[in-house]
Amino acid sequence: xxxxxxxIAILSPLYQQVTVWSLAIxxxxxxxxxxxxxxxxxxxxxxxxxxxxxxxxxxxAMVANKIGVLTALINLLILGYALKYIEMRxxxxxxxxxxxxxxxxxxxxxxxxSLWSTLHLLVVTFINTCVLISLYHDxxxxxxxxxxxxxxxxxxxPLAVILFVILPRIPPLWMVPPQGGAKTGLSNTVSFxxxxxxxxxxxxxxxxxxxxxxxxxxxxxxxxxxxxxxxDGTQWLQNPSxxxxxxxxxxxxGLDTAVFQRFAPVSNNxxxxxxxxxxxxxxxxxxxxxxxxxxxxxxQDHGINMLADFRLYASKPIDQxxxxxxxxxxxxxxxxxxxxxxRAVNLSLPNNSNPRTTRLAMQFxxxxxxxxxRLDAMMRYFTQQPYxxxxxxxxxxxxxxxxxxxxxxxxxxxxxxxxxxxxxxxxGIPARLVSGYQGGEYNSAAGYYSIxxxxxHAWVEVWLPARxxxxxxxxxxxxxxxxxxxxxAFFEPQESYLADSPFGYMSYRTSEMFNQxxxxxxxxxYFWSVWVLGFNTDKQQRVLEEVxxxxxxxxxxxxxIVSLGVIGLSIAYSAGLIQFHRSKDRHLNAYYAVCKLLRxxxxxxxxxxxxxxxxxxxxxxxxxxxxxxxxxxxxxxAIKYQNVGKKPQKKLSRLLIKQSRxxxxxxxxxxxxxxxxxx
Length: 679
Description:
Low-confidence stretches: 172-182
Helix content: 40-55%
Mean pLDDT: 82
């Protein structure tokens, strides 16, 4: 029964990595094992298990490119774990299953490191440890195994903490990005549909904490992620040159050389002319490279590149929670001078695309020769016409912007941003689309912002002489509450992120009590992410400096030796291997040492019980050691209670110590032999 419980418990956290056919084989193995336990079916023949193992390995090798190498390896270990489970025949087989369970738990930790997943895996580890205990103890009850299992896990906590603090913070060598893993969040293309899909998700995108408890207005929280400078008539895309730079290419290879050179990675300059905002961001796993920051974002963290379009880009996909530090300069101009090649890119439009919108843009250009006046007039145009902001816009035809801007007049942020950028380009002003997130939910208890997927947003950046790229958000003209007060101030949850999951935890946000409880749990998870998952090299150095002062190799080595020594002594003391308060009477200690071992065999000596009475009980319970224990008792009584001479006492003392050592060896050997026979 223990093995059945632990088998299900270990496989349960891996449901996202298990393929359908692997899950089917695991289910069959569990049902088969239950049948064996009930005596309904026989154990499978060895050839059948071996054939299934080889077939599974070959199948996983063939689909590894589709599901990812790490996922394939996890499935292979899961199948081996399940197949070994049904062919168990002796104690050694059970040991193999238990040890394989620990490997699966470790693999799960690689994939899932949130607080709640960690607590879940600790419970699974506890159950697996109880199975291991049941192999080596003749106690056949839940209470004994649970008590000892909890004790072992608690004893391991100090060692885990010490190793966590002192081990170098290096990326895991076994971390293999999932090749076929699903990507979440924003996309590097923006059309009239894809951001609308994100509004139906209440998943956390990232959290941000500002230093010095800076509290920003919702309208200032524009989190840039992706810049799109190409428009093909149906969607906005990243320029091929910036994609080449993201992939690490150093030569254009068929691209415009002037544009490619402009997109080369930029250095991390420090700007003294603008007020800086310092904050840290914890990005959730997305399998994407782009990171999030306010205008203009810089980062000194290793593995983060600053691209020429003023974005932060991770050198490796975000497959785990990633904490990074950012400094933004909101008043710093973005690219005050624009190269002719890049100007041409941000003015280009498809031929014969949206002719009616093009004519409208030319009217604006003729009426407002000054660029700033023209842009202001375009922004006012959205308030002068009966436009409507909705998550369910009507369908558009081939000329998308014409249909939206002049016919339907109902759309989402992408509709308004696309129309504004198109009109700006058509009137002669360089413009581009930016996608990211707008706003954030502030947690006053812990002092951080939570940004969810449904806060995805798109806006426009236009280039003005001497001012560089300037943000324009036409959504603020149609739905100012969306920008100033946040997404939830404008849309009901049922319209967006609760549409697909009406019973999710976010559906109870209207309840004040539940919302406070939700924020408290979120705070706990946040601090876990900051202090455990975000424990990087810098934090490790600060902690060691607080403990050791100046960190040197000698001090670090002494700290490790002393810590491990203290932990080892405490474990040895709790196991009864050493005693710090021993009697000075070595004869009494030798006799009591044997009594302690017998107490662990469920034969404790009562406090009011004499040596002879206890000797009789030992002889009745353990006949195999009756003669040896009788000798020990007689030696002990002679020394303690009989008046013997000095010479006989020395001989009895030597015999007592020798007999005590011999009895301890016999009892330990018998205990191990007894445990080997119990499966």
